[in-house]
């Protein structure tokens, strides 16, 4: 079978509109099968085109591969669709995650659906870790989104996940797919969008009550953050079932096809770790702490990237809170310890213990005064810790909630989605949050 790969001109499309796919192969024919991700993959459509060859490009410039237009049927439900590329007719459902011959496409609703939940797919983060063409935002300040990869179909920077070797961490399959499958198995309906959609000011005015993200939503543009903040301040709710969220600022080209991120302090030399450095131009926390939006920041947490880690869960601080309804948890119990819920990266708020031994936010890092720490996990010394303002408080993952117009819930760990199918208490907390806020 001849090699084939491709990418979408834009990562999302409205149902009923035309999407442009760019595909290259030396074979005479291309077969494209579209599958919607959900409780189980559903075959949604098939198209064939003549094959055309093209050369591999660089990571920082549009690859300009041959273009093919496909009109998305208006009846397609909003969701994440994987285009499976082949040079021969496919039989059966192939694996939807692969490092080549796959394209991720998010279908947004053609009109307001009435669903209460809007789920954000973090394509900026997928592209930041995408190494197609020889580079990523970890080796350069600029990448193009018009190249293979970006969630699926391309090589990815990062170490293997000892707890789930089936897919690389910074891909759709690793966290988002697990969360979405769990929602659909549990009858929780949502519409879907990308961070580019929200960057452009789309969808958040269409009647949604709750914006959800999960896993690893690390790269945010100023426009994206501004629009989400406005949604929250106007009464919209946020549920962040992830961590390392809104850590890096990215600038997006006017046509939405390029990302820029200036990570290194002036005069930095090779080998400098920007996470551990001060004076990084696009650290959100150094200019506009992400705590003000989400209540937490990675600078008060940390990461454990390689191999297994000390098993930790959140120590419950207020078992009577609605978040824990139906879990059976009591104060002092651990949520998710058996499944190593804390990691591989986690976020926290600066805090101190009060006279009763309960953690309370200090607010010195921008965390709102009414942020309630509902679960806490102090991090062992063998973790990797980012730079932060000098303070004596420990590094800890802090699960919590606060209200600022709308309610904001943060799970404060990337691995939340990994435990949904195996830990009934993690699943119960998730159900409580989605039910109450949507």
**Rg, Å, rounded:** 21 Å
Percentage of residues in DSSP E strands: 25-35%
Number of helical elements = 7
Distance between the termini: 47 Å
Question: How much helix, percentage-wise, in residues?
Answer: 10-25%
Q: What does the main sheet amount to?
A: 9 strands, mixed
Number of domains: 2
> What strand line-up does the widest sheet have?
11-9-12-14-26-25-24-19-20
Q: Which structural class do you get from the secondary structure elements? A: alpha+beta
| Overall average pLDDT | 97
What is the global morphology?
A: globular
Number of strands: 26
Low-pLDDT residue intervals, each spanning 5 or more residues = none
Q: Oligomeric status of the shown chains?
A: single chain
Summarize the structure.
With about 450 residues, this protein is an alpha+beta fold. The chain has helices at about 125-130, 175-185, 195-200, 220-235, 290-295, 415-420, 425-435; strands spanning about 5-10, 10-15, 20-25, 30-35, 40-50, 65-70, 80-85, 100-110, 115-120, 140-145, 190-195, 210-215, 220, 235-245, 250, 250, 260, 295-305, 315, 335, 345-350, 350-355, 360, 370-380, 395-405, 405-410.
Plain-language structure description:
The chain has 438 residues and is of the alpha+beta class. It has two domains: 4-108, Macroglobulin (MG2) domain (Immunoglobulin-like, Sandwich); 209-437. It is 13% helix and 30% strand. It has helices at 123-129, 176-185, 195-199, 222-233, 291-294, 416-419, 424-437, and strands spanning 4-8, 12-14, 18-25, 29-36, 42-50, 67-71, 79-86, 102-108, 117-121, 142-144, 191-194, 210-216, 219-220, 237-243, 248-249, 251-252, 258-260, 297-303, 314-316, 334-335, 345-348, 351-353, 359-361, 372-378, 396-404, 406-410. Strands 11-9-12-14-26-25-24-19-20 form a nine-stranded mixed beta sheet, with helices on both faces. A five-stranded mixed beta sheet has the order 2-8-7-4-5, with no helix packed on it. A three-stranded antiparallel beta sheet has the order 1-3-6, with no helix packed on it. β4 and β5 form a beta hairpin. The protein is globular. The model has no long low-confidence stretch (mean pLDDT 97).
């Amino acid at each position: 079978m001849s090699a084939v790969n491709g990418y979408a001109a834009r990562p999302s499309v409205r149902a009923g509109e035309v999407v442009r796919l760019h595909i290259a192969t030396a074979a005479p024919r291309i077969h494209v099968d579209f599958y919607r991700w959900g409780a189980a993959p559903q075959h949604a459509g098939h198209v064939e085109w003549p094959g055309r060859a093209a050369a591999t490009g660089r990571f920082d410039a549009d690859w300009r591969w041959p273009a093919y237009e496909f009109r998305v049927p208006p009846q397609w439900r909003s969701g994440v669709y994987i285009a499976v590329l082949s040079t021969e007719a496919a039989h059966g459902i192939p694996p939807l995650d692969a490092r080549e011959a796959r394209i991720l496409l998010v279908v947004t609703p053609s009109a307001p659906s009435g669903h209460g939940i809007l789920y954000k797919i973090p394509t900026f983060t997928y592209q930041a870790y995408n190494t197609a063409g020889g580079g990523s935002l970890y080796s350069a300040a600029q990448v193009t989104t018009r190249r293979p990869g970006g969630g699926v179909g391309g090589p990815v920077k990062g170490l293997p996940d000892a707890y789930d070797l089936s897919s690389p961490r910074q891909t759709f399959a690793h966290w988002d797919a697990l969360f979405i499958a769990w929602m659909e198995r549990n009858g929780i309906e949502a519409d879907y969008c990308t961070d580019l959609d929200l960057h452009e000011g789309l969808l958040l005015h269409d009647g949604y009550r709750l914006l959800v993200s999960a896993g690893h939503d690390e790269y945010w543009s100023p426009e994206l953050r501004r629009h989400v903040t406005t949604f929250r301040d106007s009464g919209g709710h946020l549920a962040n079932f992830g961590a390392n969220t809104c850590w890096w600022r990215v600038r997006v080209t006017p046509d939405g096809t390029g990302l820029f991120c200036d990570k290194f302090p002036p005069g930095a030399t090779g080998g400098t770790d920007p996470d551990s450095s001060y004076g990084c131009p696009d650290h959100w926390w150094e200019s506009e702490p992400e705590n003000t939006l989400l209540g937490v920041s990675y600078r008060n947490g940390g990461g454990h990237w390689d191999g297994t880690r000390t098993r930790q869960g959140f120590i419950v601080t207020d078992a009577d809170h609605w978040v824990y309804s139906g879990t059976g948890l009591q104060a002092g119990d651990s949520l998710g310890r058996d499944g190593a819920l804390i990691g591989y990266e986690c976020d926290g708020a600066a805090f101190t213990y009060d006279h009763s031994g309960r953690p309370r936010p200090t607010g010195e890092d921008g965390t709102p005064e009414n942020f309630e720490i509902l679960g806490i996990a102090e991090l062992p010394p063998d973790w990797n810790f980012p730079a932060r303002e000098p303070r004596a408080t420990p590094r800890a993952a802090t699960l919590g909630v606060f209200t600022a117009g709308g309610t904001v819930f943060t799970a404060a760990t990337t691995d939340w989605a990994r435990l949904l199918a195996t830990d009934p208490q993690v699943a119960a907390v998730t159900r409580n949050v989605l039910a109450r806020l949507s």
